[in-house]
Amino acid sequence: MKEEVKVEVEDGGILQISGERSKEQEEKNDKWHRVERSSGKFVRRFRLPENAKVEQVKAAMENGVLTVTVPKEEVKKPEVKAIDISG
């Protein structure tokens, strides 16, 4: 099976994964020979969170598994200060 996959980040923080897969299966013996081919295109789109670092999105394919890594900006939490109320 052969797969071609493209990962893009579009304006507005949209992650698009598209590709095409094709499969060929062949069987033969002394009396006959059969080849079956199938193919198809696919597209998936996801809206990334606002704190995503879109310029640092990474994708890797290993053994037919696509892994997309989307780093996020750290959200700074407001500091909480203790107040002495013992008087």
From TrEMBL:
This protein's record includes keyword NADP: no
Domain SHSP: residue ranges: 1-87
SUPFAM superfamilies linked: HSP20-like chaperones (SSF49764)
Superkingdom classification of source: Eukaryota
One Pfam family per UniProt: HSP20
Phosphoprotein as UniProt keyword: no
Key words, A-Z: Stress response
PANTHER family assigned to the protein according to its UniProt record, in alphabetical order: HEAT-SHOCK PROTEIN 20 FAMILY MEMBER
Family: Belongs to the small heat shock protein (HSP20) family.
Name the record gives this protein: SHSP domain-containing protein
Organism name: Salvia splendens (Scarlet sage)
